[in-house]
Amino acid sequence: MDLSFFTSDGDTLVPTPMALSSWSDDQLHGVAVSGALGRAAERAVADLGRAELVPVRLSVDLFRATRMRPCRLETTVVREGPRLCLVDVHLRQDVDGEGDGEQVTTARASALFLRTGEAPTGEVWMPQDAPQPPPLEVAPVSDEPHVPYLRSDADWSQNFREHQNAGRKTTWSTPPAIVSGEPLTGFQAAAAMADGTSLTSNWGSRGVEHINADITLTLARRPVGVTVGLEASDRVEHDGIAVGTATIFDREGRLGTTVVTAMTNTRRSVDLGSDERARGDDV
């Protein structure tokens, strides 16, 4: 079965039901939006023939609801130099959904790609402890999309009901393909799952009560494979504004960090511990 967030129609991406958000029945979730923006940036750099550059940062602004309508991704190379490439991406949609109306930008991203080099000779501090993925007997290595594995005050499982608590959370996920028929890349997987920082930082005893306004992903290297984990590393909240930080990692170790800034949305909170969601039926 071909699981994906979008199908392609020429230069247009058409959302599939897998892209539907829990916040609304006509809104894409941030995993799909961030993944699509990351894919567009990665393709723009590939089109330049710059295979030596690696993605190191993706900053996403989610300033308008992206609807379950066709999406166009427009890229601009802001700066290309010997050691870097900076790309802007805008996700645009027709306001009325008819295909010939006013086009508006609903989300945008800035992506930075750098050329790798020699390792420095001096010693620099780095933390020695690293987040641990679930044991192989719990989550075997696979590139197939799956319901996230979760750890909180409860041990690793895919049962969301067990993890609707105030504990520190870790996730382990393989997302679907961004576009049907295209292989998922490690960067696309990381870009998509960066939105899942909300599960680690804003999911508490009464569900998810904050909605993301932005996402920032930083990477020192690409993931090995397309499965990545997120472990909450910090959270600050004041007057309904929350900043959550997570460490992103794979089975080889730490990759970088993710940060989300979110605003309270308690009138439409998402109860991830309900009977319907707790089974983990959907990817």
Question: Any key phrases for this structure?
Answer:
single chain, 283 residues, mainly beta, 13-stranded mixed β-sheet, two-stranded antiparallel sheet, 4 helices, 15 strands, 12% helix, disordered C terminus
Rg for CA atoms: 18 Å
Mass-distribution shape: globular
Query: How do the strands of the widest beta sheet line up side by side?
Result: 7-8-13-14-15-12-3-6-5-4-2-1-9
Topology order in helix (H) and strand (E) letters? EEHEEEEEEEHHEEEEEEH
- % residues in beta strands: 35-45%
Poorly predicted runs: 277-283
Helix residue percentage: 10-25%
Tell me the span between the first and last alpha carbons: 13 Å
How can the largest sheet be summarized?
13 strands, mixed
Kindly name the structural category.
mainly beta
How many DSSP helices? 4
In total, the number of strands is: 15
Q: Mean of residue pLDDT? A: 93
Task: Please give the structural blueprint.
Blueprint lengths: L3 E6 L2 E4 L14 H18 L5 E9 L9 E10 L3 E11 L8 E13 L30 E6 L18 E5 L2 E3 L6 H8 L3 H5 L1 E2 L2 E2 L1 E10 L8 E11 L2 E10 L2 E12 L10 H4 L5
Parallel strand pairs: 1-9
Antiparallel strand pairs: 1-2, 2-4, 3-6, 3-12, 4-5, 5-6, 7-8, 8-13, 10-11, 12-15, 13-14, 14-15
